[in-house]
Every structure is written in C-alpha cells, then in structure tokens.
Specification:
homodimer; 420 residues; alpha/beta; Molybdenum Cofactor Biosythetic Enzyme, Chain A; Molybdopterin biosynthesis moea protein, domain 2; Molybdopterin biosynthesis moeA protein, domain 3; 4 domains; 6-stranded mixed sheet
C-alpha cells in the first residue's frame, strides 16, 4: 500500500477513521427510528385529511344505515296479524321518497310507496318490490307466491354499529376512508401534523435549471427528488435552494434550520472526503450531533444522520442515484414514522429474478433499481433499464457473488408503491 | 310470473327493454375508448409537470455528463508522451474545484488538483486519486504500481447522448423523470392538458357532512370517491355539490355542463328504475346521446355512458361500492386515456386466491374488493374485509360458481397502484 496523501488527512479528518461511524443499513434504520419523535396533532375537517395519518381509532358517530332503510323500489306495508283474514290487499296511504320520512305510524293493512334508500316508517314490516304486486284503485295486491324471505329492509346499524372502529390509528387516509367516515357522520378527524422538511442542494457547480449551466456547471436536479419524496409522504417541503461549497454558507444554513423550526433538514452533496466536502464539518460546528456518518451500503455510503436541536438532519451525497436510494430506504420511512405510520420501513417483498446477476464487488449490501411485476401469480423483478424509472430496489446482500434466473431476492417497494 | 305493475312501465320506460343498451364490461371499455378524444397540450416548466403526461418523446438537450468529468478527488495530469523520460513527477499548476473549469490547456507534465465532478481541462489525460500519489514541494509523485486501467474521467455524453430519448410520450412524469430531465438541460415539457371533471351527487336524501343528516337523510359521501379519483389521475375537479331528485335541477345541471366546457361530467345516484331516478330522462332531454345505459357486471350494472356536446358523461349509481368499482374500472381509465396514457385500462394481473370462493349468482361478471400482496415470490389475493380498503378488484367471470384456495384469478389493480 502506498502512503496516504498527508494533505488529505488534514482536509478530511473523518477519513482517518477516528470519527467514522459507519452503520449497517439495519442499524441505521434503528438509530433513525430511535431518534424519531412523533409530531403534534391537528383536528381537521374531512375535506382536508386526504393522505393524512390518523392519530388513533376513528369511530362511527352514526350507525349504518342510520335508519331502517328500504333496499327496493316498491311499497312498505304493515302486515296484518295472523289472526286476521288473509287478504293480500293493502291500502296505499302515502308515498315516502328517499330523504323524506313519513311522520305517522303505518297502520296495519296499509302501505306506502317507498323508494330504494327510503326510510321505513314505524310499523312497517316489509317492503314489497313493484314487480311482486299490482296497484289497483288505491290498493296494492300482493303476489303471495313471489314473496321472498327477505323483507327488503336494511335494519339500523346492521352494516356498521355506532362507535365501531372505522379506521385504526396510524393509517394514511384514502378517498375510500373519507367516504366511509362521511357516511358514518364523522365530520372531523385528528391527524398527525405534516412534517416540515427543508432541503438544500450543495455544490459550487450547481445552477438552477432556469439559469442553464455554463462550462463545468451542472443543473441542480436533486431538488426534484427531494420535493417528490416529501410530497409522496405527505410532508410540507421548504426548498431552500442551492448553496456553494463554502463553510460560511453552510453555517448560515444550519443557523436558519434552528430558527425556522424545521422538523427535518436534508442536504445533498458535500459528503465526500474532498476538500470542498464541508457539510459534516459545518454541521458539527453548528452544534449538530452526529449519529452516524456512513453506511455499509452502495449506493449511498456517504450519508450523515444526526440531530440539530429538535431537527433531524440527513446529509445525503450528491449523485442522484444515491439520493433516490437513500430517500426511499431511510429518509422517507423516517418521515412516515414521524407521522405515526405503522410498519413504515420500506415494505419488503420477495420476487423471482428475471435474469442472472453477477456482483463484481460483493463486500457490502447493494441496492439496484428494479422493476417489479406480476405474471401468472408470480412476482418477478428485473434490473431497471438505464433511463427507466424503477418501482423498487433489489437487495443484493454482501457475500453472494451471483444469482440465478428465477432465484428469490428481497425487494424494497418504492415509497409511491407503499403509500396508502 | 306475476304481471308487471303498469305504473312502473309508465315511470321507467327504459325498463321495457326497448331503450336498454346493456354492454359487457369489455364492450363498455371499447365504447368509451372510441368516444375519447385527446385533450389539448400545454408547455410548462419542470416545476409544474409532476404526474402530468408527456405528449411525445422528451429528448436530452445536453449530453450527460455535459463535460469531461473527474470521478475522483485527486489530480488531473497530462501524461508525458512515451518517448519522454519516464519520471512520474508532475508539477501542480492549479486547482479545479467543481463548477470552475480551468481556462488554460494543461501542458504535458503538469497536474491540477481536481475534485469529483470537476471539469477535466483540455489536455488532461487521467485523474490520479489522492490515495495513489504523494504531494511534495508543489509536485505530485505517482505510484505507478497502483495505477488502474480507469482514467477516472467520465467522457462527455458517455452516459446520455444529446438528443437521446429521456422519456417517451404517454408517460406520467415522476420525480425521478424530472431530475433526469433537469440534469439533461430540459427546462420545459409539453404535456397533455388536465381534464376538467365536474361531478354532482344526486339524491333528495343527501346532505353535506357539515349539515349533518336528519331522519331519513344521508351524508353525501360519494363526492370523496369522485374527488379522490380525479386527483389520482391528474384531473382538475369541479365539485358541483348535491342536487335533488328533480328533473328541472338535472336539466339545469346539464345546461351548465354545456356552457362550462367540462371535459367529463359524472353524476352519482338517480340511475335505478325508480320514479325518482331521473338522470337518464333529463340527460336525453338535454340533448345527451346515450352510448350504453347498463353493463352486465355487479356491482355497477346501472351506469349510463354518453356524450353531451363535447363532454363525456358518466351517470353512476348511488351505492359507494358500485361507484368505486366503476370509477376504477371505467371512469379512471377514460380520464387517463384522454391524457394519452398508454395501456390505460385497469392493469390486470393474475394472483392466487388465499381462500375458497363460492359465487351465489354467477350470471354476470362480478368484481370483489380485494387485497393483493406478495409473499415468497407469489402474488396472493383475498377479499377485503368489511371495513378494509382494498387495493384491487378480483374478477369473477360468469359461469364459474366456485374457486379453490390457491386458484389463479384475474385482478384489476386499483388506480392508485397503477399510477406512475
């Protein structure tokens, strides 16, 4: 081995190993989870809670149905008692369209026209569908032989009881949940506050897309990945722009993090061992506490996780591929956990590889962009093409150098696939 | 058979069979697709196109990388020609941080400090990583034995060529696409306009959640399903509220549809054979053309599809379960097709049933809410629980009365699972 460049050691103290805290992927997950504090709650009307996370069980305010309801268009009758003469004629006394209950009690031997969804009046014992009767001179004549066991009356609370749990706590509310809650009289739901997530892309080479890059410059593209993730997990994103590889700019940023009361701060870039990779230095100088500053995984080894006051801080590397892998594997799940989502680490499934895989360097866990599909009852996965968007990450654990076609591998679903 | 009630025939002309156009699910899909016209286009900046659909191939404006780029922190050197004396010492003449290209041409035998992502100057032939050299008195001495085949220079366009297709037409843009487009210098994208989708819940029994239902009344809940679907497929929703089972209100609504230039109008309720089920009557009176007014499928048999001027019209039944099934199976795919999404009918997969199924009435296609999961490389599906939100619909075609555990069945993925 050649002797390391002296200069490097001066520039990059963490490279000496003294301050290097490299965690496994699992340990990194645990450490993040241990640091995660749940956010405050807020009570909101139904219109405002789509994709928000329930704090606790949401109960039915009203039963379903909330009144005895006709399930057919026809006539609701009050049957005569058995002792009476058995003539199947009932006098039609009124009409009950949906939404308009009858004030009176139905007398024995009388009928009311009723529509599907109509409110069965007190005394009503059965709904006779139109096709099972004939209307004549203000009376209906019922075809006894066609009468079915069903009374075509859905009793109050027969579908959902009052007080029943409609949605458990820790669930992201979908449109279907909202419809269910509304129909059971729920008007407001207590949900977890949205995490406020600030992010900055660092790099003196970066310019915004609108400016257009000069020679040696690059368009800042990670902000799209960061913004996209924050939206996908229901956070509130604060795009703090681009800053240069300059310690003072970083220190100013971290000072702002403290005053802005961000729940989470994410940077990209500046995480390597280079002279201009100053994120960790500035973070520590600003009072940040490093939990880990490396992870035994590729891509994404150069990640710093720590806390700055009450703010969780993720320092991600610059390459977009590493950014998207870490956002999905660690940052997104942390944002979900803060909102109380249950089982929020990237959902793992097993799928059959659609092609052979040879791993050149199998020293650490490798995550590859994958495309997960289902075919004839099998879950299949393949590497995503060069410009193809994957929908999962294929895990290739250390130690195994090759995988055969059809072999079962573990797969992390991409956050968008897990949401909801 | 008992004779049908005369009154019914007067009230419900469509029940006579004369005007009944009942389609199979497949034929309904085809009919809707045949009616679908693609929307206009609009050119938008990258910040505004998340989840929007590309009109045509989006090409790289700049290659990737857009300059010869160092892949290591180290020194870029201009190697001496072979004829020259082979001393591995190079004079360090300058420094090239990321974003700051060197103006001059690198002379033979000289070196420049360079960072990962830095722009390799003209003349530079190789980057020597820090760990493969020693810096001494303004020179670097290179460890020949540790030199690798790689020059650690990523050549211009080696990852993505200028003019290469980054995203094909007909694709919903995800965050990853936007990052890719930005990095290749794309600033604007031409996307399909968002469909403007109006919807109304009909029913004299309906009240809004805020009002709270009186006896015999129900909270209007379908608007959450309608709004949720429109958001999921990228449409612009126009909630037109609740209207009563009253022909004039319906006629007023259809008049408004014509003047408001809605792309799609959806109603729920009022689609049965009852006296107050007036949607079809009003639609036809308002000049609407019925394409079909029934579908041989449960739930959801009572659906009307037609056109009113340039507006596509879906008259859905009232029960939320039927509404969600039809939104997923027919309305959502139509909204996606209008935006040019390719293969936009609900994505079908096959999965193994996790339990036996017995179908009581197997006369028509039945769709059941299902929960699709993956386990040990197999795709599994089961009926969703009573209050559980499914993520798919299980197809039970007519004719088959029972299914064994483990049997392969066809499944439609729910729209949210298909998006992106």
């Amino acid at each position: 081995m050649f002797v390391s460049c002296k200069t490097c050691i001066d520039y990059y103290p963490s490279m000496t190993g003294k301050n290097k805290k490299t965690f496994s992927f699992q340990r990194a997950q645990q450490a993040i989870l241990a640091t995660t504090r749940q956010l405050t709650n807020e009570k909101l009307v139904l219109d405002k809670v789509r994709q928000r996370i329930t704090v606790s069980d949401v109960l039915a305010v009203m039963p379903q149905p909330s009144f005895d309801e006709s399930t057919r268009d026809g006539f609701v009758i009050r049957e005569r008692s058995v002792s009476e003469e058995r003539v199947n004629r009932y006098k039609v006394v009124d009409e009950i369209p949906a939404g308009k209950p009858l004030g009176n009690i139905l007398a024995p031997g009388t009928a009311c026209r009723i529509m599907t969804g109509g409110c069965v009046p007190e005394g009503g014992t059965r709904v006779v569908p139109y096709e099972q009767c004939v209307e004549q001179n203000g009376q209906i004549i019922i075809d006894d032989s066609s009468l079915q066991a069903s009374t075509f009356i859905l009793k109050t609370g027969s579908e959902i009881a009052q007080g029943e749990v409609l949605v458990p706590g820790g669930v992201a509310l979908q449109a279907g949940h909202l419809a269910l809650l509304a129909s059971c009289g729920v008007q407001t739901v207590t949900v977890v506050a949205r995490p406020i997530v600030g992010y900055v892309c660092t790099g003196s080479e970066l310019v915004s897309g609108a400016d257009g890059p000069g020679n040696g410059q690059k368009v800042s593209s990670n902000s799209f990945l960061l913004g996209g993730l924050v939206v996908a997990v229901g956070g509130r994103s604060v795009d703090m722009g681009i800053i240069r590889d300059n310690e003072q700019e970083l220190l100013d940023l971290f000072a702002k993090v403290k005053t802005d009361e961000l729940d989470v701060m994410i940077t990209t870039g500046g995480m390597g061992p280079g002279k201009y990779d100053l994120v960790e230095k500035a973070f520590v100088e600003a009072g940040g506490e490093v939990v880990f500053n490396g992870i035994s995984m590729r891509p994404g080894k150069s990640i710093l996780f720590g806390t700055l006051g009450k703010t969780m801080f993720f320092g991600l590397p610059g390459p977009p591929h590493a950014v998207s892998t870490l956002l999905n594997g660690l940052v997104g799940p942390a944002l979900q956990a803060m909102q109380g989502v249950k089982g929020s680490w990237p959902r793992r499934v097993q799928a059959h590889l659609q092609h052979q895989v040879k791993v050149k360097r199998n020293d650490v866990l490798r995550l590859k962009d994958g495309v997960l599909t289902m075919e004839e009852g099998r879950s299949l996965v393949r590497f995503a093409g060069r410009l193809e968007m994957g929908n999962c990450f294929i895990l290739l654990p250390p130690g195994q150098a090759q995988y055969g076609e059809g072999e079962l591998v573990e797969v992390h679903l991409a956050i968008a696939l897990c949401a909801g």
